[in-house]
Automatic annotation (TrEMBL):
Pfam families: Sugar_tr. InterPro entries: MFS_dom, MFS_sugar_transport-like, MFS_trans_sf, Sugar_transporter_CS. It comes from Actinomycetospora lemnae. This is MFS transporter. Gene3D superfamilies: MFS general substrate transporter like domains (1.20.1250.20). It is found in: Cell membrane. Residues 25-437 form the Major facilitator superfamily (MFS) profile domain. It is a multi-pass membrane protein. The chain crosses the membrane at residues 62-87, 99-122, 128-151, 172-192, 198-217, 251-273, 285-305, 317-335, 409-429. Keywords: Cell membrane, Membrane, Transmembrane, Transmembrane helix, Transport.
Amino acid sequence: MAEDPTATPSDPAPTARSGREVRKVALASLVGTSIEWYDFYIYGLAAVTVFAPQFFPQVSSLTGTLAAFATFAVGFIARPIGGIVFGHLGDRIGRKATLVTTLVTMGVATTLIGLLPTYAAVGALAPVLLVVLRLVQGFAVGGEWGGAVLISVEHAPESKRAFYGSFPQLGVPIGLIASNAIFLVLAASMPAEAFSSWGWRVPFLLSAVLVLVGLWVRLRIEESSEFVAVKRTGSMALPLASVLRHHFPQVLCGIAMFTGITGIGYMAATYTIQYGTSSLGLPRAPLIAIVLVVAVLEVPLILWVSAGADRWGLSRTIVIGSLATAVVAALFLPLLASGSLLLIAVAVAAARWASAPMWGPSAALAAECYPTEVRYSGASVGYQLGSIVGGALAPIFTTLLLASPLGMAGAAGYLVLITLVSGLGAVAADRLVRRAGTRTPVRTPA
């Protein structure tokens, strides 16, 4: 493949960072993404527990559930727009300033959701405001992922880019842990009526405090040295235009790679709770507890496989995860349908843990696909579009397929397909990187 004529191979070499600085940046990425995904996930939990009666009370149970899932999916639709806007800013003005902006934007939107009036108070205006704020959430998280991943990868030693690139990826299970934990505590400490009336607002309002913590951490880190080196030669006017013109195959690979990763992740994290409560009549608390415990154990697993991926190879590790997750995806829905909490726990654990080899190393591979001056835009757009095809649509398609003549077999086949697509995307991305010769040689730092 022809190299990007806008690339600048003569750029000054980035300055080596100390181990302390690398760890500080990784921690800042972890804290920030954990807060952002906490905000994103509490919306998902509220969507499957309280939003249908609070914001869509005039429709049937199935329609209300689909409407709540639709507002959840709206956030995904806004994510590519956020990826484009913040990707442009990140490639033009820097990773650090952009990440501060995304964090504040997300925190404001989440806090306002906690203050929203319900349908009973303002009628149809309530779901409209809910959708608008969900769009803002999606817009913010659309710019968050790319910046957090890149600032970690670009600070990391060349032989540990998958490992340090996994730190912002850990924000997903940690955000999942925090959101599920607070919902579980609140649901257990107050009557169901109180939780449905006002208790669900508390996790959203807590975001204001968490954002202040995240800002304190993020303002203390330095800009990526790779970006600083490129910035000296002048910023590209339209990074996204260069991505679409010279790196469009890499964008397609990113979409494919993240389709199955996000799809199975959201199925295990949010769909399980909705299906268990509405279709199986199971209590909400043990389902949330299952997701929480699985996410706690997922964190060290992601770190371990990501450290291994630096030795085994990024695409090879992702393919192994893709094949393992495809097997799990075939059994996921039948295990949920059993109604047994034990088998449901097995399904959730298998889905989240099998996908860890895909999720952890995918950040470093996405970063490798692009030169520094367009990396934020390229990585963000590929990931966010993949999250729509996978994360946003998986719960909706699964619900529709289960209600169709295809039933369980059709829904399970769909989940298997999207996980295999992730592995194919990783293989294709790796070949493009090798063909372009843009991969930084791995060497063990002294």
